[in-house]
TrEMBL record:
Domain HTH marR-type residue range list: 1-137
Keyword Transferase belongs to the record: yes
Organism lineage string: Bacteria, Bacillati, Actinomycetota, Actinomycetes, Micromonosporales
Protein name stated in the entry: MarR family transcriptional regulator
Residue span(s) of domain N-acetyltransferase: 136-288
InterPro entries referenced in this protein's UniProt entry, alphabetically: Acyl_CoA_acyltransferase, Bact_Acetyltransf, GNAT_dom, HTH_MarR-typ, WH-like_DNA-bd_sf, WH_DNA-bd_sf
Alphabetical UniProt keywords: Acyltransferase, Transferase
GO molecular function: acyltransferase activity, transferring groups other than amino-acyl groups; DNA-binding transcription factor activity
Keyword Acyltransferase: yes
Length: 292
């Protein structure tokens, strides 16, 4: 792990220097990257609260950046016309021109960096960047256990049901959703504070559990979050004495079937009376680790 950390740190040092991020004249303009990025994020107009959340900045630092851009006559801030408690930032005419110049210089700089590479090498670089972005997004997702009657749990289940109602040829009846209090475990995955996935389990017997309602939002698909949630559910159940996990799925959910098979589940005879569980799977999982 330590060697991996040092390699990432070394890459970060190289890349920030290569892009000129450390200078106080980013892309040759009279401002650092922080102010240049804020100009870009404001665009036509932006709610200051949204800017703070989007960029992960504290209120004091964002206020100082906005004040600096206002002093340069590039930005103006004012109360929102419909809610004077909300501040809005927008570019002035000079700010619009400066942002366009920033975009032009950024495009030219990246073009210059890529120009020596062949088409295949550029494709390799872009693919590598996409992989890095995917893995960093996955690493930033948090998974936590919540009671199954909380608002976030019920919202996730509603989103799950709405999607299945479209994907299943026969539709989906919300009555099939687990009722509050029925589940032994409910996990919610969040990306930047927004729920993007969930999963649950309940006991079928003393050491057997059924995994249910595994769902990942379309905005977070392709990250590997479904597998991470499935593993977390197995671990949660195993910590509570479960040694066998079962689950059912619909034949329309081909990606779910592939996930279960590649995660070590074997197909078994159907169990239960759910009309949507057209295929059934089972896997032996590690139970709780005994204390020494």
């Amino acid at each position: 792990m330590d060697a991996d950390v040092e390699l990432v740190r070394d890459f970060n040092r190289y890349y920030t220097r290569r892009l000129g991020i450390l200078t106080d004249r980013y892309l040759g303009q009279d401002r650092p990257l922080s102010e240049a990025r804020l100009l870009f994020e404001i665009g036509d107009r932006a709610d200051v609260r949204d800017l703070r959340a989007r960029l992960g900045l504290d209120s004091g630092y964002l206020s100082r950046l906005l004040r600096s851009l206002e002093d340069q006559k590039l930005v103006r801030t004012h109360p929102h016309p419909d809610d004077r408690r909300v501040r809005v930032a927008e570019l002035t005419a000079s700010g619009v021109r400066e942002c366009a110049e920033l975009d032009r210089r950024s495009h030219a700089g990246i073009s210059e960096m890529l120009e020596p590479l062949t088409a295949d090498q550029r494709a390799e670089l872009v693919a590598a960047q996409q992989q890095v972005r995917r893995l960093l997004r996955l690493a930033a997702v948090t998974i936590e256990a919540v009671p199954d009657d909380t608002d976030v749990a019920r919202e996730c289940l509603r989103a799950y049901a709405e999607e299945l109602a479209v994907r299943f040829p026969e539709g989906y009846n919300n009555a099939a959703l687990a009722k509050p209090g029925e589940l032994a475990g409910f996990l919610v995955a969040r990306e930047e504070g927004v729920a993007v996935g969930c999963g649950a389990w309940h006991r079928l017997g003393p050491a057997t559990a059924e995994i249910r309602h595994l769902w990942v939002s379309s905005s977070a698909r392709g990250l590997g979050l479904g597998r991470r949630l499935l593993t977390a559910l197995e671990q949660d159940a195993g910590a509570q004495g479960i040694t066998v996990a079962r689950l059912g799925t619909h034949t329309s959910l081909t990606e779910a079937i592939a996930l279960y098979r590649s995660s070590g589940y074997r197909q078994i005879a159907r169990y239960g009376d759910s009309p949507y569980n057209q295929l059934a799977f089972e896997k032996a999982i590690a139970g709780p680790v005994p204390r020494p």
